[in-house]
Give the backbone structure.
Amino acid sequence: MFGKKKSIPQIDKEQLALIKYAEKRIKQKRRVYIHFVVFLIGAVFLIVANTVLGIGKDFTIAGLNWFVIAIILWLAFFIYHFISVFITHKFMGKDWEDQQRETLVAKQQERIEQLKQQFLKEEIEIAKSQAFNETLIETAPAGKKKVERTIIVAAGENNAIGKDNDLIWHLSDDLKRFKSLTNGHHIIMGRKTFESFPKPLPNRTHIVITRQNNYKAPDGVIIVNNMEDALDAARSDKQPFIIGGGEIYKQSMLLADKIEITRVHHSFPNADTFFPEIDKSLWKEIARREHPKDDKHEFSFTFLTYERIL
Ligand SMILES: NC(=O)c1ccc[n+]([C@@H]2O[C@H](COP(=O)([O-])OP(=O)(O)OC[C@H]3O[C@@H](n4cnc5c(N)ncnc54)[C@H](OP(=O)(O)O)[C@@H]3O)[C@@H](O)[C@H]2O)c1
């Protein structure tokens, strides 16, 4: 039922044109060889006609026998023929040259059109995500700060967040919340956290912090060398998210306005990366939602939101 389709060999227009071109070239070269042989035979014939048969024996031009002049002229014509075929390719004709030029121009135009469409698509996506962010801010209560730098993290009771550059748990509802909160936003992360992803997350602008000068990342990922540049790269976003890991969290605790933390109700003594302690004299809890342990979630956890008070 799902057998492979038999492939039918096909020659496209371009290949056909190339074959025609090759055939024409072979014919032209053959004509040059024939011309050369005819010239040699003709030259011998002219010499014999004059010297042996005595044809036009006394006829001279500028002191030269007529057959010498005839051979020189023929030789010049042969050289012209040779150059036209092997050097200037003159005999391919203007039509052929025009056709080649038109094919090239058409290809370039097609490529330009594709790039234009791609560019337009990206512009629309950017405009959409900016409009989405602006709407969020406009509907925020009056008096609220314009930009809300938000740390988002999931941490155990002992503040554990990772081990061997990976998460220690799999909590699908926490991932869903992460996706919905960060959707359409800039996400700022350390190089190690970025490398823990199989590929960049869709519909988010990735900003990766590294001290490396020539760090290579897929198209669209912004690379910066310090936290200040990371925040600057996200300045168009009213709610950029700082998504980890341990090193980056430590450096951003004083810069953030909000913390979205998922507190996983378990201690993970084997972890190797930790979230800093939240100083309750600086941060106020403003929202909380419990999530019980169930078939899909090995641990219970709580979604907590903190706002900076100082
Ligand atoms: N539970 C969670 O919510 C959560 C979230 C995110 C990550 N994680 C976990 O956290 C762990 C990774 O965290 P991590 O602390 O080891 O690494 P990380 O913070 O992701 O990245 C560290 C790297 O960031 C770069 N960097 C840090 N500070 C910099 C600065 N000031 N200027 C320039 N570059 C700077 C350096 O990159 P170079 O070495 O290239 O210079 C450094 O090696 C993983 O286990 C991950 O799974 C957990």
Residues 150-308 form a domain with the Dihydrofolate Reductase, subunit A fold (CATH 3.40.430.10). The chain is about 45% helix and 20% strand. The radius of gyration is 40 Å. The CA atoms of residues 162 and 181 lie 21 Å apart.
